[in-house]
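Note to self: keep these together.
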Amino acid sequence: MSQSSAPGTPRPAFNPRIDPARDRRRLILYFGGLIAFYVGVILIARPDWGGGEDELQKIALGLMFAPTVGAVLAAVFGPGVIRFGTPNWWLLAAFVPPLAIAVVTLVASATGEVELHAGKLTVSLAMIVPASIISSISAVGEEIGWRGFLWPLLRRRATFVVSSAVMFVVWWLYHAPLTIAGLYGFMGGLPAFTVAILGFVLFVGVLTERSRSIWPSVLAHGSWNALVGTSYAWQGKDEDQGFVGSRYLLGEFGWLAAGTMLLIGLGFAWWHLRTPTKDEISPSRPTGYDDPVQWLWFRRAPKSA
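Structure:
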């Protein structure tokens, strides 16, 4: 006969929310909820395909919260964990891409390839912090799902490089249909946008791992949308833009931003993979982000035994 544990002996803590055996169920709930909400928003709003940015506004906010819907379903019924973390100094790194792209585009303006509207650019850069924060209100809808739920789940099972590859494919599939449908950007700019996505995935992956928080990625996403996707974007001869030139060069569908973002992403990833984290866990090894782990309702989850 086996001996029973002595009365009063504490049992090892078991938290079903971080049980790896339930990851498949969580992923099904996550992607099922994301896709259903994504399609539902489109069916309800019924945008005019090929109508451009004006039609995109009908569905943009709803689509940006589709990843959050999937994450909430996975957190509640998985059950799973959404890792929020806390704001920290890594927030400052969120402004690296828009500032670097501004510098590169300024250099391009000196060659005559791009026309500079110095006054408008100065205003945009002066407003970078409040504009990014405002834009982050919608960006958080994506980042709760991408970096709050999916990224740490992937990293528990795979390396940084593999997790980034998966996230790149998922993020591309999330955005590309809107471009193909004529609502977002233009088809000729899709190759550059693809390169920009790859660089951005690497960059915010590093920010998330180093900060143990989604907030730097939220602000980075917000600053990208507020400046690269708006102030630096191609708008014909619009005098309200900081730059005017070819749409193949400007904005998030232009090669100036794409090339710069890829270099930033590769540079940050190279540094991250070569530099140990504070807890001396190599970033090339899988990690479950046990510190800090926060549930949907912002309570710290117990560590697994």
